[in-house]
Specification:
The protein has 174 residues and is of the alpha+beta class. The chain is 34% helix and 29% strand. It is globular.
Length: 174
């Protein structure tokens, strides 16, 4: 039986681990990830191991939160991920999410990410959460709004010239 850091009625979430390399490889190479989030140069499972070790695990060590694998409890399938990120060039904590195509449109994004935000608030004291997405990703925008974030402005991040829509649940950005 899998141990979860936190869970909902249908889902369990736990920190991403090196053992998730196959799943991370699959998720980061879905058409929507590549189109809306970007190519992270994860072209093999070995690349996925390197990505997990260099991009995901350090934040857990530093902040005790980061990227979580979302697992459907009924069949123990890994269906996506959601996370709280301390992202370079972005003030505050950023929420993110992505799911395999066959698990989209079933409410898993809202269910897991709202629970993650509750966990972040209760366990880590994170009350102000931001979100970023590209203009073309309407689904992500709708989910950010459903999570209680509102559009603030268009921004760019270091090392990424593409404009991003910046959302926040904080009134400090008004």
């Amino acid at each position: 039986m899998e141990e979860y850091t936190f869970e909902t009625e249908r889902l369990g979430m736990r920190p991403t681990a090196v053992e998730d390399a196959h799943f991370i490889f699959e998720l980061l190479n879905t058409p929507k990830w590549l189109r809306y989030i970007g190519d992270r140069q994860v072209h093999t499972e070995e690349d996925a191991v390197t990505y997990i070790k260099s991009k995901m695990l350090p934040q857990f060590k530093e902040r005790q939160f980061g990227n979580y694998i979302v697992i459907r409890k009924e069949d123990h399938h890994k269906i996506g991920c959601c996370g709280l990120y301390d992202r370079e060039g972005l003030e505050g904590i950023d929420v993110g999410f992505a799911f395999l195509p066959s698990y989209e449109g079933k409410g898993y994004g809202y269910e897991s990410t709202s629970k993650l935000m509750e966990y972040g608030k209760d366990v880590h004291g994170i009350t102000h959460v931001n979100g970023i997405t590209i203009k073309e990703n309407i689904g992500s925008q709708k989910l950010l709004e459903k999570l209680g974030l509102r559009y603030i402005k268009t921004i760019t991040l270091p090392k990424d010239p593409d404009p991003l829509l910046f959302y926040s649940n904080s009134t400090d950005h008004a």
